[in-house]
Design brief:
Helix content is 35%, strand content 18%. Helix 1 (8-19) runs parallel beside helix 5 (116-133), helix 3 crosses helix 5 (116-133) and helix 7 (150-160) packs across helix 8. It has helices spanning 8-19, 27-34, 77-94, 106-110, 116-133, 136-143, 150-160, 164-174, 196-200, 281-287; strands at residues 42-47, 55-59, 66-70, 102-104, 179-185, 188-194, 231-233, 244-251, 256-263. By secondary structure, it is α+β, with helices and mostly antiparallel strands. It has two domains: 8-133, no CATH class; 175-287, Beta-Lactamase.
Length: 293
């Protein structure tokens, strides 16, 4: 008998091969059917109208089975789908680590969870969900060599039934562009996620930094001049230097803004983005147990 995977990416790849290329992925069907091969399968996937979490994986008393719960108050269907995949990832990868189950709430969503070990587990569940819902080969086929814009982002959202944030993060992990996703709450940076090229350029925006006054995220009225490519901003608006293209998403909940920043190559003196990566201050900051996404 072939051994089961132990890592989130391997699990997602196995399931993608087993169910084929059908999008959006039916997470409920896969979770309920695949878990039947285990003595402790997932028995139910249900709504749970509570304020304490976005999603949860709970053991069912006495039966030895599991249930995935999700909060129907989540405004985005794509976020619900990602939440279900996230909890399924906990079931496959982590349930033996914590027989009491998992509750995944605002601390995970907003990056407030300061428990280093738990944060790693949550990131692994996110990785599983990303690879299951948006397999790399298919995602690359969809984006091709096109510039990321709102239209392409919307296409990915519709194809994979995920949130715009999830689709943007996937693109950042695969793109050769120098780009950063910056999430802010109440006008202050909460976390950022960088492409490989952005890491090589040592670009990062510290938690607690106020949004630049000239940024789209800080000026919703710039929407009036935006195109599908976003808004082109002059040098020094974001504290990196050089021109940048900003695509901003405004979320009513949590008073959150999400900015996808794509930096122009000339902003860095035409230097080579394909150089070998080096550890920078940002990497050391987060490897020492700080909050990150």
């Amino acid at each position: 008998m072939t051994a089961e995977p132990t890592r989130p990416c391997a699990w997602a790849n196995l399931l993608s091969r087993a169910w084929g290329a059908h999008f959006p992925v039916d997470v409920e069907l896969i979770a309920l059917e695949y878990s039947k091969r285990f003595p402790d399968p997932i028995k139910a996937i249900k709504k749970a109208e509570v304020d304490d979490f976005e999603g949860a994986l709970y053991p069912l008393a006495k039966s030895g089975k599991w249930a995935i719960l999700y909060n129907p108050e989540i405004s985005s269907k794509g976020r619900i789908n990602f939440t279900l995949a996230h909890e399924f990832g906990h079931y496959l990868v982590h349930r033996k680590l914590n027989p009491g189950g998992f509750e995944c709430g605002e601390a995970r969503l907003l990056g407030y969870d300061r428990d280093g070990a738990r944060r790693i587990i949550e990131q692994e569940a996110d990785t599983f969900a990303s690879y299951l819902l948006m397999p790399i080969d298919d995602f690359r086929a969809q984006i091709g060599r096109n510039d990321m814009d709102f239209d392409l982002l919307g296409h990915c959202v519709d194809r994979y039934d995920v949130s715009r944030t999830a689709a943007a993060l996937k693109w950042l992990d695969l793109t050769e562009e120098c780009a950063v996703l910056v999430t802010a709450v109440n006008g202050f940076v909460l976390w950022c996620w960088r492409s490989k090229a952005a890491k090589r350029q040592r670009i990062f925006f510290e938690r607690g930094m106020p949004l630049p006054e000239g940024s789209w995220a800080a000026n919703p009225n710039l929407s009036l001049t935006a195109t599908s490519m976003g808004v082109a901003l002059p040098a020094d608006v974001w504290p990196i230097g050089g021109e940048v293209r900003e695509m901003a998403i405004f979320a009513d909940r949590y008073e959150m803004t999400i900015s996808l920043l794509v930096f122009q190559k000339q902003a860095f003196g035409g230097c080579d983005w394909e150089e070998e990566p080096v550890e920078d201050t940002f990497d050391r900051f987060f490897s020492n147990g700080q909050d990150a996404r």
